[in-house]
Each structure stands twice: as C-alpha cells, then as structure tokens.
Amino acid sequence: MAAQPKRGGVSLPERRPVSKPESNILARITSSPIVSRGKQAASDAAFVSRKLIRSTGKAAWIAGTTFLILVVPLIIEMDREQQFNELELQQASLLGAPPTAPASK
Fold it and tell me: Which residues cross the membrane (predicted)?
C-alpha cells in the first residue's frame, strides 16, 4: 500500500531560518544589561511586596484576634454595668427615693 496523506489534520507553517541574535535589534535590546537589571529589580520588588503583604496579613490577624479576646468582653461588661445602673435608678425613682447620681469610678 502506498502512504496516503492524512485528511483533516492541521498543517504547521514552514519554519523560517532563525536569524543571528546580533543582527536582530529586539534580541540585542532584550539581552542588554539594562534590561536584565530592570527585570531583576522588578523581581526583587515583587518579592518584597509579597513578603510585606504576607506579614501585614499576619499582623492584622494577631490584632483582630487580640481585640476579640480582650476588648470585646470588656465592652460587653461595661454595657452590662451601665444597664444595671440605669435599672437601679429606675427602681429607685419608682419607689419614691430621691434620685442620686451614680457613683463614678
């Protein structure tokens, strides 16, 4: 049997010969030391920004959990004490006692 070409396949375009990097202006620019230093600087900036964002996130987590554990119960207790003082004043006024100013701490 003779080899027949396949039907329905995708044919690739023919390859052009690769020119020398010295003759191609784009290749000379991309291989220049200024471009490589710029790439290194961009890479360093991205690394530092990732580390900064990560450490900022950790600090925010620590501050948030500390706030929830220490400050929120204090706020709740202060509100509860204020409500208790108001209730005492209301009961005293209903019983006919002269209103007194709450003792300040």
Answer: 59-76
